[in-house]
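target protein:
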Amino acid sequence: MTEFGGSKRVAALHQFRQARRKAELRALLSKITGRQDNLLEFEEVRKTLALAHPNPEQLKDIPLDSIVGTVSRYHDFNRQFYPRMDSDEDRWARVKELMEIRGLDPIEVYQVGDVYFVLDGNHRVSVARQLDTGTIEAYVKVFRSPVEVNPDDNLEDVVLRIEHKELMEDTHLDEIRPDVEIRVTLPGRYREILQHIEVHRYYIGLEQDEEIPLEEAAASWVDHVYLPAIRAIREKRVMEDFPGRTETDLYLWLKKHQWELEKALKRNVPDWDAAQDLKLQFSKRIWQRIRRIWDRLTGK
C-alpha cells in the first residue's frame, strides 16, 4: 500500500507553492507585456483548422515546451502549466508524491502541427514542468493540420495562417507575384484583401466588357492598386507611426482613409495625398494623447 504524507508531502506542498508563485509572476508579466499566458483550447483550434479524425496513438517522449494547450482544463493552468488555483494544492502534491514513489504514468495528448494538447494528465504535466524534466512520456494521437502550428502561437496566429492560406488558394498570388508580400496582423483582413480584389475585378470587367478570371484580376490589383499604394506609404514613411503593423495593414487603412477623404472632399484623392494626411492625422492624435497624459500628471 502506498504511503503518503511526511517529508514527501511537505516537499510536494512547497514545490506547489513555488509553482503558484511562478504562475502569479507570469500573470503579472503578461499584463505588462501583453504576451499570451493562457493555454490554447483544443476545441477552438479543432474548429478553426477543421480537424478530422486523428491517426492511431503512439507512445513516445514529447518535449514539455511543446505542450501548449488542453482539452478541458485551460483555466486551471497557465501557458507553462503552472497552477492558477490554490484549491489544486492537495491533488498536485499527491501527483508529485506518486511520481517520486513509482514514476508518472504516460499522459494522453493530441498533436496538431508541432504542438500538443493534453487529453489526460494536466497535473502530471504541471509537476513535470515544475521539476524541469524536459520531456514526458505520452500516448500521442496526431491530427493532420492544413497549416503549421508552433509552440509560441496563440489562436489568432492560427486563424491568420488559415486565412492567408485561403487567400493564396483563391488568387494564387504566391505563385504569380512571389516577390510581393501580402501579410496582415489582424484576423479578417485577408478577407478584406479578397474583397478589394473582387471590386477591382468588377471594374476591369466593365472596362473590358468580359468576365475576368480571379487570378488575372489579383495580378492586376497588385500591379495597379496595391503596389502604388505601398510606394506612397514608403515615400511618406507612414510605417514609422504604426509600429508592429505591416505594409498590408497600412494599405487597408490607407484605402479606407482615402475613401473617407474623397467622400468629404467630393473629388479623387491620390495615394500620395491620402498617405500624407493619414500620417498627419495619426501624429496629431499621438501628441494629443501625450498632452492629456501630461496634463493629468501635472494636475492641469
